[in-house]
Design goal:
- Helices cover 52% and strands 28% of the residues.
- With 164 residues, the chain is of the alpha+beta class.
- The protein folds into 2 domains: 1-68; 77-163, Alpha-Beta Plaits (2-Layer Sandwich), CATH 3.30.70.60.
- The longest helix has 63 residues, at 5-67.
């Protein structure tokens, strides 16, 4: 029985099948490693996309909020200056615009005021920031006046969203 050719053939076939199975297992393991790396990369991309979606969602919410305002333009700075500073001239004034998303721009108003009463300046800032849409004071430089009396030279920079 030991030297029976059928048994020997069965052992050879079993060994060949075992070798083929081992090769197929190794190939499958390599394939799983590669697929695992691909899946991890896709999960990372998915997390990045979710972050982008949250970011875009905040922008859409802000856009809806500003789109729903009754007034799409802030009060004209010249009107506010006339109301709070009276006839006092502005020493220097510059206005710029920068386009944002469809229908909205950022307006930037820079001005240098001569010797003015600080209570008038604070009333101007409060009125500007109370509007809808509001102006936002982004920079303020105050230089004390040699005459004193609550007056100073003031440089102001305001920014506001403006719907077109």
């Amino acid at each position: 029985m030991k030297d029976d050719p059928t048994i020997r053939l069965m052992w050879i076939c079993g060994g060949v099948l075992l070798a083929i199975g081992a090769v197929l297992c190794m190939s499958t393991l390599d394939s799983l490693r590669a697929d695992g790396a691909t899946l991890r990369a896709r999960l990372s991309e998915l997390e990045e996309l979710r972050g982008m979606e949250r970011h875009a969602s905040r922008y859409r919410g802000a856009y809806r909020k500003f789109d729903g305002l009754s007034a799409r333009r802030p009060v004209a700075m010249a009107t506010l200056l006339k109301k709070h500073m009276g006839g006092q001239p502005v020493e220097d004034s510059r206005s710029t615009r920068q386009s944002l998303v469809r229908g909205w721009t950022v307006r930037r108003q820079e001005m240098a005021l001569g010797e003015v009463s600080m209570d008038k300046v604070m009333a101007l800032v409060h009125d500007a920031e109370s509007g809808r849409p509001p102006w936002r004071l982004t920079r303020c430089i105050v230089r004390a006046s040699p005459g004193g009396g609550g007056k100073a030279k003031v440089d102001l920079v305001f920014e506001a969203l403006d719907g077109e």
